[in-house]
Amino acid sequence: MRWLFLMLFSMKSFAFGIMPVTVEIGASGSLAQQKFMVSNEFETPLQVEIVPMELKWEDGGYRAVPADEDILILPDTAMIAPGATQAVMLRYLGDPALTRSKAYVIQFNQVMTENSQNQQQDGSLVSMAVSYDAVVTVAPNRAQSNLQLASAKNIGNGQWEVLIENAGNKHGWATKADWQIQTAKGPVTIAGKDIANFMDATFFPPLSSTKTIFKLNKDIVVRDPLSLKVKEVN
């Protein structure tokens, strides 16, 4: 999924970074803001442009649309000296009376400058900029996610087409849950930190269902129907 990871790699791909990469904030007051730190490890100044986009869940997938009216970024462009770190403040300005959480991706895009160019053996220059994405969810007070297996279909070779329902009003992260499978030898638990090796989807919008492929190791044998229980730890 494009909105959860570093998108563009270059030969200098770790020459700048951002923290944090995922965060949840509130919809109003002091909780409706977040500070990001952008570090420059280039030997030359780094220019970064910060662009907020809303992630809308449509037809079983996310679509990114401009979010300038909902998200304020200060500064939205920054020139960072070599070895320095720049603080970037985000504030949510959208509807404070949310009934379910909203998701945004904050794009930190390297502007084309001398440190985004690589010289080739023939002497030519190739521009290769780097972009990082941070995911921000805005949740109403006391919102909860509620992930559960809605259906499962055995498609062979240890793979299952599963429908994961999020019955809660907050975005759910697969990585923030333990996934328990019933096997012939008893229950097997997959920790959230490992779930991406077994399931393609890891980010579930509220009050919706997400279809994904669940892949089991050859040494994990289960019987129909698949029993998959989710124990969230957030």
Structural class: mainly beta
The portion of residues forming beta strands comes to over 45%
* Helical residues, percent: under 10%
CATH topology of the largest domain: Immunoglobulin-like
Major sheet size, sense and barrel closure: 6 strands, mixed
Residue-averaged pLDDT, rounded? Answer: 88
Q: In total, how many beta strands?
A: 20
End-to-end separation:
22 Å
Characterise this structure:
The protein has 234 residues and is an all-beta fold. The protein folds into 2 domains: 2-139, Sandwich (Immunoglobulin-like); 147-232, Immunoglobulin-like, CATH 2.60.40. 0% of the residues lie in helices and 53% in strands. It contains no helices and 20 strands. Strands 2, 4, 5, 7, 9 and 12 form a 6-stranded mixed beta sheet that branches. Strands 1-3-8-6 form a 4-stranded antiparallel beta sheet, with no helix packed on it. The two termini are 22 Å apart.
Q: What are the SSEs and their pairings?
A:
Blueprint: E1 16-19, E2 22-26, E3 33-40, E4 46-58, E5 61-66, E6 71-74, E7 77-80, E8 85-92, E9 102-110, E10 117-119, E11 125-127, E12 131-139, E13 147-156, E14 159-166, E15 172-173, E16 177-183, E17 186-190, E18 203-204, E19 208-215, E20 228-232
Parallel strand pairs: 2-12
Antiparallel strand pairs: 1-3, 3-8, 4-5, 4-7, 4-9, 6-8, 9-12, 10-11, 13-14, 14-19, 15-18, 16-17, 16-20
